[in-house]
Amino acid sequence: MKTLPSKLLLAACLSSAFLAPASAATPAAAAPQAGLKVDFQKFTLPNGLEVIFHIDRSDPVVAVNLTAHVGSAREKAGRTGFAHLFEHLLFLESENLGKGGLDKMTARIGGSGANGSTSQDRTNYLQTVPKDALEKMIWAEADKLGWFINTVTDPVLAKEKQVVKNEKRQGVDNAPYGHTRYVINKALYPENHPYNWQVIGSLEDLQNATLDDVKEFYRLWYVPNNVTLVIAGDFDPSQARKWVEKYFGEITRGAPVEAIAKRPGVVKQTVKLAHEDNFAKLPELTMAWPTVEDLHPDSYALEVLAEYLSETKRAPFYQVLVEDAKLAPKVQIGNQTAELAGQFMVKVRAFEDKPLDQVAAAVDQAFAKFEKEGISERDLNRIKAGLETRFYNAMSSVLGKSALLAEYNYLTGNPGQAEEGIKKTLAVTPADVRRVYDTYIKGKPYVATSFVPKGKLALALSGSSKADVVEEKVVQGAENAVDPSANAEYTRTPSSFDRSKEPPYGAAPVVKVPQVWDTKLANGMRVVGIKNKEVPLVQFDIAIDGGLLLDQPEKVGVANLMARLMTQGTAKKTPEELEEAIQQLGASIDVSAGAEDVRISVTTLARNYQATLDLVEEILLQPRWDEKEFALVKQSVLSQIRQQEADPNALAAIHFGKLVYGKDDPRSRNILGATESVNAITIDDLKAYYRANLSPSVARMHVVGALPKAAIARSLTQLGRDWKAHPVKLPAAVAAGERPAAKVYFVDVPDAKQSVLRIGYRALAATDPDFYPATVTNYILGGGGFASRLTQQLREGKGYTYGIRSSFTGSESAGPFTIASGVRSNVTLESAQLVKQVLQDYPATYSAADLETTRNFLVKSNARAFETAGAKLGMLDNISKYGWRADYVKQREGIVKAMTLPRVQALSQKYLDPSKMVWLVVGDAKTQLPRMKELGFDEPVMIAR
Q1: 495 exposure class (CB count in 10 Å sphere: 0-12, 13-18, 19+)
Q2: Comparing 396 with 474, which gets the higher pLDDT?
Q3: Predicted TM-score (pTM) of this structure
Q4: 363: closest CA among 383, 379, 351, 345?
Q5: How wide is the angle at C-alpha 12 spanned by C-alphas 11 and 16, nearest 5°?
Q6: Beta-sheet pairing, 342-349 with 227-233
Q7: To which H or E segment does residue 172 belong?
Q8: Segment 567-574 long-range contacts (CB within 8 Å, at least 24 positions apart)
Q9: Under a CB-based contact definition with an 8 Å cutoff, are residues 804 and 820 in contact?
């Protein structure tokens, strides 16, 4: 992946990707009719390129998605990870875009950021841009497809290998349980099966890739007749077709691409494998059975089976493993399908020191319970009830719709196949669910992995063999330095017109700030909202100021526990009854605690809004305080805290908070609490917190959805009457104090494959006049993705990291300026030195061109600012929390346009001084700590985990 991917909600609600929980206890909310679809137009160019258009005029934006039907399944032996490596390369340069041209253009046009991802079966390249940049994007995507290969050089390939290896270290080698999928797939699929290896590949295979491999892969798979182009959003389809024909039409068709035969995994007898995981504090059992491929007729019933077994309090696995045996806080089950094969997976991360033999025995008991009881029509209907809500959630952005259309097109040739998936899910019967269980799971051999903490192999399943996991050793100077800056020399690929000229902008989009309505309830709670008719949903939240700020120092963790317990039943409903009542409506209600508030977050169909609101009121005003559920939640939180102790990223977040806020500020504390504080908390502490701190006097409500102000206000009359206000004393806002001299702090994670860096200090409140100008200043430093200096230097220039970013965050109190990255262990010092150099040079080297790029991005990207309900809710939260005007986004445009070079340079000198920052490293102390003194900030300070 080019950046850390946000998972697209493609057909997460559809067919074989159907995994989200839902429930229906009564026939009040009927299951959806099979009429949920996405309209589209499709045509094919003479060279074989398949083109799909979807028109959505709700926002002045367009998503462009180029999907190649090639993933890791097409790789050769000894070249695993190559499809994903190629994805990275395709972003870097093409003949007419030039080096980093797509990223530079993305910044200029206000795009969402050029992104991509690789799966076993496909690779996609996608982003959302303002509608006036559509021709530019079509030109750029065509240049990548047809005018790319000559620009790849050995130095460029060498650098990108380092980037991808850093991605593997970050997501696999340095992550708890990161090697699980590798171990399972090696045992589940024969050595010559395309799913035997991982998409990310092996470090050795990545290093062995050659320039000839790149050229061959391009010639075989990156041809128009193996690619789908989707354009979704607000555009003129006749004009877009002319542009597609112009820019893509002369790319030569490739050789025919033969389909790979469907081929399930093979497990002839049960395989048990164990691994001592350096980053695990809890034992984890994963079991996998080979099943069927995506869109297979049985895949729909297998998904229903997976959801039924684990997703609710009525589920057999929850009742046996969580409630009765108390072996784990939850069980995860899913039927994971791809184009060629699928696998049914059960994952249980047990509580500390629980033998996995006990877990496996409980799994058998849970399956036996299902065999005895089966699945009722009532349970089946509640699973189907949430389908409609999930569909509309998936359709909330043009990028999501583009990915859905592309996926069904490469799988079936029919972008509209999603509708068939819904029909097949709705047609699943109890007999179907039992049949697929009997066919694929009951009594069948499987692969079981035991990932246990170092030194605790005795917790693994009896009879397990040692898993073959290759772990990289940290060796100083193991990689050669790379310099990808040299330009390649080549004969340019011919074209019938001059492609070196970037197309002009179209007509500037009209950006309309959504109309915000505002009201106040009888109890004083302010309610702000936006009517949004794009989908028939209502999303709302109630933010109750306080959260972690109101925890007592000796009882940190109360706010979190209280929030989690609030959805575990009400005075009138058992936990099971409340869960069913919510899911019957196809709704979701979540209560969570944050550093500064407790938040109730809700999504529901517009037609079920009132019934959902009634449940929210019941949760808020009539808590159950269930002792049994309190014990379960408490044990779950203690397990989370234990796992954080070995997770490098969690350790970095916890210790950075302590260092920048100081021990006396509540924000310095872990929202979960500590083992000692959580053990000391009683249910009476939760009740006391609830009585003292949950009041409409410190609450704000935000509503986005397909209902008008009048309907929302009318519905809230009872809440305004029944929820009585009382004063709540919140801590006063805190400004940043004096900044001490820079210091290096080190947290030891022995044998870490990466070092996690957190650099920064307590800077500004969001309400400070300098906050947004400082954010503007930071764009080129580390806020602009691939346009930023930090990314260009540490990733693109040196290959030290997979990603690095910087940001200012704050509230009414000062929050931190933070630089965050995970870097290769053996360049920890070099990475920190380079960050320091970038910071030191930034004021003097910031140019007029940098300011123009920043202006273009921050102003033009406002076309995307209000596309999703989540974005609108964020806007409303800012308005209610800080008292900002409804058009504050437009006010910020004025700030951006008024920024000058001297102003940026002055802000940089004031707020980006590396000699007054905390420099935190979480990594392998035995190899990296001694070197950190060379950073120039005296002796590093070791911090205990």
Answers
A1: middle
A2: 396
A3: 0.92
A4: 345
A5: 75
A6: unpaired
A7: none
A8: 567/591, 567/619, 568/624, 568/626, 568/629, 568/630, 568/633, 569/624, 569/626, 569/629, 570/618, 570/619, 570/622, 570/623, 570/624, 571/618, 571/622, 571/623, 571/624, 572/618, 572/622, 573/618, 573/624, 574/624
A9: yes
